[in-house]
Amino acid sequence: MIKHILFDLDGTLLPMAQDEFVECYMTLLSRYFIPHDIKPEILINAIWRGVGAMVKNNGSCTNEEAFWSCFTKLLPVKKETMEPMLLDFYNSDFNQAIKSTRPSPCAPKLIRALKNAGIRLYLATNPIFPRCATLNRIKWAGLPAEDFEEITTYEAYHYSKPNVLYFKELLDKYSLNPKECLMVGNDVEEDVIIRELGVKVYLVTDCLENKKALALSADYKGSLEKLTDEAVLGTG
């Protein structure tokens, strides 16, 4: 019996084309830092190198620590100066990136139905963003953050998708039985990997990500609307 559902955010509860979102996000970020005399090409390179450090994180530090350790080495600005500016960006100009997403009325309806059914919900979004950036993306999706038992962000996690240890860290934190869990995501590489831990997967196909053309080995698949209808009817 499913008692716990783990949800991805970007492309799942918040429909988007990942490439469009990233392009919009990086453009906004570059513009924000122009007055601070940080060249866009240097900034973007540092961001991607920082993301790479989080993806390669071996668990020896938090993703936040891995990011900043790499990021600040590539910029002519100290962390003490850069961090407040970056967090201000995520709380201001970053919100314009909602225009690159396609919020769906299905997401709030689905979450509400599952909450009413007593299912415990966890936002298993890739923890490569600060909490404030993730909370804002949750708002874009029309969802209350308090509906989730956990929201995975870079401050508290030591691995990133597609490392299966990221999911193990989440399951262990709440002592979750894999057989009582379901993962709902849209990325074949990043989300389906949780099956290695014995968790079944529902692959949302609206904004399917499968850059490596991997086999669609999820247990279930379909649209977010289909999953919502099943939850509302009590047949999911």
Mean pLDDT: 96
How far apart the termini lie comes to 11 Å
Q: Label the overall shape.
A: globular
How many strands appear in the DSSP assignment? 6
What are the segments in which pLDDT stays under 50 over at least 5 consecutive residues?
A: none
Cα-atom Rg, whole angstroms?
A: 18 Å
Enumerate how many helices there are, as a single number.
8
Strands in their spatial order, largest beta sheet: 3-2-1-4-5-6
Helical residue percent?
25-40%
H/E element string? EHHHHHEHEHEEEH
Notes on the structure:
It contains 8 helices and 6 strands. With 236 residues, the protein is an alpha/beta fold. The chain has a 6-stranded parallel sheet, covered by helices on one side. Helix 6 links the parallel strand 2 and strand 3 (150-151). Helix 1 (18-33) crosses helix 2, helix 2 (40-55) runs antiparallel to helix 3 (63-71) and helix 5 runs parallel beside helix 8. The chain is globular, with a radius of gyration of 18 Å. It starts with a strand and ends with a helix. The mean pLDDT is 96.
